[in-house]
Amino acid sequence: MATLSLIPLAKISPQSRRLSRCDVVRFSSPFTGTLNPITVPKSVSRVPAMVSPLEAISLSNLSGFPANLLDLLRASPATWESSIASNLAIFTLGSPLLLSGLSALGMGSAFLLGVLTWRAFEAPGFLLVATYFVVGTAVTKLKIAQKEALGVAEKRMGRRGPGSVIGSSAAGCACALLSIYSVGGSAFSEIWRLAFVASFCTKLSDTVSSEIGKAYGKTAYLLTTFKVVPRGTEGAVSVEGTIAGILSSVLLSTVSYFMGEVSAPQAAICVLASQIANIGESFIGAAFQEKDGFQWLNNDVVNVLNISIGSILAVLMQLLIFDGWR
């Protein structure tokens, strides 16, 4: 077997540092200028070498790609620059899905929401909002033709505009800003995170209960009088929609728990607060929405009130009940 003369590391090209399984390779000797063959044992597949973080994600690691990606995204504290860059990458890759559920202006509003969310709560907070969007879009598309025939479908084939995005996320954005600027200090950082999760649990539950009720509800009741009304009537509820709304809230709070956003008791708080808030939203819709003197109280404004109630209730439950027992 021929021997290999000592070669300074700088003389070895990056390609020669990554040896594949083979029998013979050749290195150029700096002393003789000749090609000296050496035999590489079958058991040796790689020569140890310093590699960049990008080189570390090789084809052999693709099976763990989602975990690797999340590790990279959470590798450093979020800044405004990293939040914008992360959202640009994700929105570019996910644009076909996003455009199926958002108008062009709605997508712009969602981008701002994504940046704010990532800056405040990093990848877990962003993934929570992404879960809300995917589930909410899916139920909105259910039996869309039937909903359109009944006149109760969302406009633009279910694609939400900026008003809907803002109405669905106003409370969450407020919580994100309070967290970013450390309002109340470290003692309140957990409170803002809880309120953020509760706001999206509330909105997802409201969206799912409404859309499932329109698609599959057999009988809809007006909450103020319990009279039977057509599906899609403001303030109307159905058994099918109510059950689906509760399950969706449980789903999102569970996702939040496994991502470390809230504890198990806080996840339960989010579910309870969301259901109380949705009962209040149905009452407001039935009694006041776009009635005489309340023309300003449209669906987007009611959404803001709904998620705000859910967030406030979650905070009050945490402060008055759970913290009071400690």
UniProtKB/TrEMBL annotation:
Residue stretches spanning the membrane: 124-144, 165-184, 241-260, 301-322
InterPro entries in the record: DUF92_TMEM19
Compartment(s): Membrane
UniProt keyword Lipid metabolism, yes or no: no
Keywords (A to Z) from UniProt: Membrane, Transmembrane, Transmembrane helix
Alphabetical list of Pfam families matching this protein: DUF92
GO CC terms of this entry: chloroplast inner membrane
Membrane topology: Multi-pass membrane protein
Family of the protein in this entry: Belongs to the TMEM19 family.
Protein name stated in the entry: Protein VTE6, chloroplastic
Organism: Dendrobium nobile
